Amino acid sequence: MKPKILVTREIFDDVLDYLRQHFDVADNQADTPMDAGTLAKNLADKTGAMTTLVDRVDAQLLSGCPKLKAVCNIAVGFNNIDLGACSKAGVMATNTPGVLDDSTADFTWALILSTARRVVESDAHVRARQWKGWYLKQFLGADVHHATLGILGFGRIGRRVARRAMGFDMTVLYHDTQPADAATERSCNAAYVSMDELLARADILTIHVPYAPSTHHVVGAPELAKMKPGAILIHASRGGVVDDAALVAALKSGRLAGAGLDVYENEPALNPEFLAMKNVVLTPHIASSSEATRHAMAMLAAQNLVAALTTGRPPNLLNP
Ligand code: GLV
After folding, report:
1. Full set of structural domains in the chain with CATH
2. pTM, to two decimals
3. pLDDT (tens digit, 9 = 90+) per residue, 215-267?
4. Sign of the CA dihedral running 133, 137, 140, 145
5. Which of 238, 264, 295 to mutate to test the pocket of ligand 1 (most atoms within 8 A of CB)?
């Protein structure tokens, strides 16, 4: 008898076919999000799960899933999974690092350019038939070329964002818990600075740190107050890293010129004040969402699940 697994959300058909070669699969191609109770009910008799970042995996859920051996998240971020609780319950947890770095860096650049050059706002203007002709001062934006890009979080994605800045002749500064080695800094044309210097010098600050209790509101009111007046903030890592209420205040006061946001506190019910701000570009947590990359993420999660339940050694084990 094949092990029973649950795939909590819609995935690609060929990934589902691959899973069916190994498992008795309960799928959710209708893509209805499961609340905690529904997830617990559906997972109670399963040996494995393919989860997404909206599925909370904690001690309470695990206590009702005695057969569960592996939870494979279709995401690089895993703040939805309590790793300590998984380890205690003997459940392997995995994520999907590596396959989404370039797509996420590309999208970060889409946010940088569209925010600085007011692409979304001007698109809305044209569509609303408000365009009456050419004006010298129409939709004046901020130059990206030759500006200073500040990168908070210099992991795989932050470094790829840095490399893309070379074509824009930017000064690239970064901050992380540790400086990168000299060869990496050279290949990214980026210099390590303190958090305060990063905030003070960046014309555009882009955030690429994972969410954890230690990174909660790492960019809050005190940090926003240290940013260069007129700077732009870009955020495509994880809701909660930025204090959204403080960001709203910094945008309202004019301290910041704009923001490009793909992630929020309390998704999808983001802070409603963002909706009224023309200088903010809002996207629905899609930074990794190219067809090829979302497929690669789903397939990597499936391969992790197959490896976890056959060899016990999934390639992206988070709690060895
Ligand atoms: C997306 O947000 C991810 O963590 O992969």
Report:
1. 4-97+291-310 (3.40.50.720), 101-282 (3.40.50.720)
2. 0.97
3. 999 999 999 999 999 999 999 999 999 999 999 999 999 999 999 999 999 99
4. positive
5. 238
